[in-house]
Amino acid sequence: MARTNYDPLDRDPIFDGTLDPDIDDDAEARPAVRPRPAPTLNRDGLACLCAAAIRFEAARRGLSQMQIAAEVGLSRAAVSDRFRGRTAWTLDQVGVIAQLFGCDPAVLVNEPRKPVRDVTGNYW
Description:
By secondary structure, the protein is mainly alpha-helical. It has a domain at 48-109: lambda repressor-like DNA-binding domains (434 Repressor (Amino-terminal Domain), Orthogonal Bundle). It is built from six helices and no strands.
C-alpha cells in the first residue's frame, strides 16, 4: 500500500500524490515472514514457553501490555521484556496473570497439546 507524504504538524496538508520512499510499502523490499514454530520445553526452556503462553492468552482475551502491567505491578516496558522472553516471569507474576485470565497457572507453564485429528478429519 503506497502512502503519500504527510506532515502531522501541517495544519493544511496537501496530498500531492508523490510517494514517500521511506514509508512506501513495497512488497519486493520486504522479507518474507516465516512463521516460527511454537516453543517447546526441551528446545526453548520454560521461560520462553511461559512467555509465549501469556502472549497468546493476552491476545486471545484482547488484553494490552499496559493492562497486564497495571495488574501485575510492573511497567509496560518490563511486561514487554517478559513478552519477548528477555526476562522471565516470576511464579507470583504467573499466578496473578492466571487469575487475571481466569485460568489455572498450569495452562501458562505447560506445552500446549497438539491437536489430534479423528477419522472424519475433525480436530479435537
